[in-house]
Design brief:
alpha+beta, Immunoglobulin-like, elongated
C-alpha cells in the first residue's frame, strides 16, 4: 500500500527531501503522460475521420455529402444539375468529356439551392459550346458518349467531386 501511495506523490513521514523531490517528479511525469494520451485521442476523434475521407471514394450516406447529380444529353450542348439535399451547395462546376477526350470545365453555378428533382441548367461558356457542337458533327458518329463530372462545396466548406461513375471523393478546394 505504501508503494502505491508513493507513486501518486504521497511520501511517508520521515523521508529525506531528495525522496520527496523524486516522488513529485514521478507524479508530474505520470500526469503529463496521461494528458498527452488524452490530447492525442481527442485530436484523432476530432480530426481523424475527416482526414481519412480526403481523397478516398465515399458514398453519400457515409460522409453526409449533399446529393448533387449532373448529366448531359449528347444531342444538345447543355448540362443539367440537381441538388436533392436540404441545403444549398456552392461553386458547382460541370466538367464534360466528349467521347474519349479529357473532361474540361464547361460552366458553373455560384450557388445551387435545393432543387429536388427539378434540374437547373449550367451556363456553358462559349468556347465549350462551340467545341461541343463541332464534336457532335465530327466525332459523335463514333458512338461515343458525353460524360459529366461535377465538383462543388457543401455548407461546411468541404469540396467534393462526383466522378463519371457517380462516386464521391473529398477534394482540396
Amino acid at each position: 500500500m505504501d508503494n502505491w501511495l508513493a507513486v501518486l506523490g504521497f511520501v511517508p513521514i520521515g523521508t529525506t527531501s531528495g525522496t520527496v523531490f523524486l516522488s513529485g517528479v514521478t507524479l508530474l511525469v505520470a500526469v503529463s503522460v496521461v494528458l498527452a494520451v488524452a490530447a492525442a485521442a481527442g485530436a484523432f476523434f476530432t480530426f481523424g475521420p475527416g482526414l481519412r475521407t480526403r481523397g478516398r471514394r465515399v458514398d453519400a450516406a457515409e460522409a453526409q455529402v449533399p446529393e448533387v447529380e449532373a448529366w448531359a444529353q449528347p444531342e444538345y450542348p447543355e448540362v443539367l444539375v440537381v441538388n436533392r439535399s436540404p441545403v444549398p451547395v456552392h461553386d458547382v462546376r460541370a466538367f464534360v468529356a466528349l467521347g474519349r477526350r479529357r473532361a474540361k470545365c464547361v460552366g458553373w453555378i455560384r450557388t445551387l439551392p435545393p432543387t429536388g428533382d427539378k434540374p437547373s441548367r449550367v451556363a456553358i461558356n462559349a468556347d465549350s459550346r462551340e467545341r461541343w457542337i463541332e464534336w457532335q458533327g465530327a466525332e459523335r458518329r463514333g458512338g461515343r458518349d458525353v460524360v459529366v463530372e461535377v465538383t462543388f462545396r457543401d455548407h461546411t466548406g468541404q469540396h467534393w467531386r462526383r466522378d463519371r461513375t457517380g462516386a464521391f471523393a473529398a477534394i482540396d478546394g
